[in-house]
Design goal:
alpha+beta; four-stranded mixed sheet; single chain; 306 residues; globular; two-stranded antiparallel ribbon; 11 helices
């Protein structure tokens, strides 16, 4: 695993240093008053940059609506410390609001045991990180396990199972949303319900793709984060939400906000026209996910010799 970011411009290196500083500072604050041994003795064992900035194929075109995210894996010494809401929410919020950090930042947190078990199973997502990731910080004597090969038969079975479970789940959320949109002409309540259902369909679509392609998805309802991870693996997914269209960017933002605001905020507003446009995009996303999912399963089937 690499241990430097010399391939990145100085500005981005500085942003990563700032992100790491915030993570360390807020984690120390979060465990300062802990009472249980697992939390009181909590440690960040590694911070690893993965994804496009680690591979050196990132995009930095904010003027065109596209800017690659920093993707970071934080490895801790106990499962209790992976609770985003309890230990990492404040850090994420500080990073989001920090004017010295220009790029979006996505954080996943797992224990060393979780990561090493996944590596021993040969799960693609983790093997890719072990191969391509860059260590920004680590404590000594906490090595990652040697990745083990996943058999082609097992890979095919897992991908097929995930696909058969999640594709119908996308369709159920879409059918629900379609009925809610039809009833929403004069009723904001139905329109807000439709927005939430469309958020669920989108979330499930990205989960379906990630599971079939990588056998992993992060514990997050943030569809921007899920989209970033998914599009990082498959550029065709971008067709569902083009970055160069202001209206598509606005609609995606409305959809992202719907997870919380459509349920709990009296200020959330969305019209039938906006919902109809979002529905078209989510259907397109669903169809692309099905296409690339079937291609992936066919390739795995062939590799397994079926």
């Amino acid at each position: 695993m690499k241990k430097d970011v010399d391939h990145l411009p100085a500005v981005q290196q500085g942003e990563l240093e700032r992100v790491q500083h915030v993570l360390m500072e807020e984690f120390a604050e979060a465990i300062a008053n802990a009472t249980t041994p697992s939390r009181k003795n909590g440690k960040i064992l590694k911070v690893i940059l993965f994804g496009s900035y680690a591979r050196d194929d990132w995009v930095d075109e904010p003027e065109n609506g596209y800017q690659s995210d920093f993707d970071l894996l934080v490895i801790v010494n106990h499962d209790d410390l992976t609770d985003i809401a309890h230990y990492w929410y404040v850090a994420e919020d500080r990073i989001l609001r920090d004017g010295d950090i220009a790029r979006p930042v996505n954080i996943i947190v797992h224990s060393l045991d979780e990561v090493n078990q996944a590596l021993k199973r040969g799960e693609y997502f983790w093997v890719d990180i072990a191969r391509e990731g860059i260590v920004l910080y680590e404590l000594p004597c906490h090595a990652l396990a040697t990745p083990m090969p996943l058999t082609q038969v097992d890979a095919h079975l897992m991908a097929q199972t995930y696909f058969e479970e999640w594709l119908p789940s996308i369709d159920r959320a879409l059918i629900t949303a379609e009925g809610q949109v039809e009833k929403g002409g004069e009723d904001l309540g139905w329109r807000k319900d439709a927005a939430f259902s469309l958020h669920q369909a989108t979330e499930r679509a990205y989960i379906c793709f990630l599971l079939v392609r990588t056998l992993y998805f992060p514990r997050s309802h943030n569809i921007k984060f899920l989209r970033s991870l998914a599009e990082d693996s498959e550029a065709r997914l971008i067709e569902a939400w083009p970055r160069d269209s202001r209206i598509d960017r606005r609609r995606f933002q409305l959809l992202k906000r719907a997870y919380v605001e459509a349920r709990y905020s009296t200020a959330y507003e969305i019209g039938v026209e906006e919902l109809t446009g979002i529905l078209v995009s989510v259907r397109r996303l669903r169809d692309i996910v099905e296409q690339v999912g079937r291609e992936r399963i066919a390739a795995l089937r062939e590799a397994a010799g079926f």
